[in-house]
What does this fold into?
Amino acid sequence: MGKLSTTAVKAATRPGKLGDGDGLYLVVKSPGTMSWMVRVQKNGNRRDSGLGSASTISLATARERAREVRTWVELGLDPLFERRKAEGIPTFRKAAAKVLAQHRSTWRNEKHEQQWIRTLEAYAFPHLGNLQVNDITGPLIRNVLVEIWLAKHEKARRVRQWIGTVLYWA
It folds into this structure.
C-alpha cells in the first residue's frame, strides 16, 4: 500500500520529492508543476525514469506504471528502450520533432530553431520524412545530400549533421 493519497497529491505545493513507496516519487517543482518518477536499482546501477505529469496521470496509473518499470528492470531490460519500443518506431519527421523539442532550450535564440526546421523541411523531409528511422540507410542520406552538395556545400554539411543527430537520437 502506498503512502500517498489522492488528496495529498492534489495538495502538494512545496518543491521537493514525496515518496509513495517502492521507488515511486511525486516530484514537485513549483505549485501546479508536478510529475511522477520511479527510481529502480539493480546490481548497483540506479535508474530514474519519468512517468509523466501528475496533472494527466493519476496516482493509481503512476503506481501501475512504476510496477511495470520495476518488472522490466528485474527482467534485465532497459525501461527507456522498452517505453520507446511500446511507442513504436517513429518516422523521421516525428523523431526530428522530438529532437527539436529536446534541443529547443539549448539554443540562444529562435532563429536557430527556425533555421533547423526550414532546412529539414526543404531538404530532408521530402526524401526521408515519412520513412521509419530504422529504414533510413546511407545511400538514402547520400541521395538527399547529392542534390545540394556542390551548390550549397555548407547547407549540405548542416543537413548531414542534423540528419545524423535525429538518427543518433532514434
Observations:
- The mean pLDDT is 86.
- Strands lie at 16-21, 24-30, 33-42, 45-53.
